[in-house]
Amino acid sequence: MNENTPNIAVTLNSVKAQISEFEHTYQRTIDSVQLLAVSKKKPATAVTAAAQAGQIAFGENYVDEGVAKILEINNTALIWHYIGAIQSRKTAQIAEHFHWAHGVDRLKIAKRLAEQRPDHLPPLNICLQVNLDNEASKAGISIEELPELATHCAALKGVCLRGLMAIPAPRQQLDEQREVLARLRQALQSLQLQHPELDTLSMGMSGDLEAAVAEGATIVRIGTAIFGARDS
Ligand SMILES: *Cc1c(COP(=O)(O)O)cnc(C)c1O
């Protein structure tokens, strides 16, 4: 281990302690915020170290890399979330190997994931990705487009619509971060009128963890603070 390699048990516990502290500060139910350890561009050994320290849920952004790690680690106790952009030609691999896909933003993709989900597995959990800043470069749909896509996705067998995810443009101030994440919370609350079973808000990364807990995140996706900086 060189000096750039964090002690993963230590960093993991420190992130968990931060989450607990923010749950307390913002009067969230204890353990209502799930930590997703984002292991993209990190080796299987880093995942195994985190798993040995008690981490169960892992997030991957690149399909080939993620599938290779899932097969190499071969630990059925772990839960794998695909959090990257979803291309049509990659849906079968996602449907076969992951438990969750967070970046669904078109019905065509949801249908492919549903059809390609193997029969012996429970439905793939999906979140609809919202482009909160309407950035042309980013995946995701507008809040206005959500009700129609949600209704179609909720009717598909093979996937289970769980909620919403977003990757807002970076903001420095806590109040600015909260303002944009509040829009995702409100969008989920509106959808829950039609779809009361939705229970997931996937938002918050290393730079906006506090804002995400304050605004109701149920899954925070943390990479750097656990595994250290990525090379590229
Ligand atoms: C990389 C990534 C993360 C983790 O980001 P960090 O800043 O390393 O915590 C979370 N969500 C998505 C979608 C990512 O691509």
What does this entry look like structurally?
The protein has 232 residues and is an alpha/beta fold. It is 41% helix and 17% strand. The chain has one domain: TIM Barrel, CATH 3.20.20. It contains nine helices and eight strands. Strands 7-6-5-4-3-2-1-8 form an eight-stranded parallel β-sheet. Helix 6 links the parallel strand 5 and strand 6 (159-166). The radius of gyration is 17 Å and the shape is globular. The model has no long low-confidence stretch (mean pLDDT 96). Residues 38, 40, 61, 83, 167, 205-207, 221-225 line the site of pyridoxal-5'-phosphate.
Helix/strand layout:
Elements: H1 8-25, E1 34-38, H2 44-52, E2 57-60, H3 63-73, E3 79-82, H4 91-97, E4 100-104, H5 107-116, E5 124-130, H6 146-154, E6 159-166, H7 174-194, E7 200-202, H8 209-214, E8 219-222, H9 224-227
Parallel strand pairs: 1-2, 1-8, 2-3, 3-4, 4-5, 5-6, 6-7
Helix pairs in contact: 4-5
The chain binds pyridoxal-5'-phosphate.
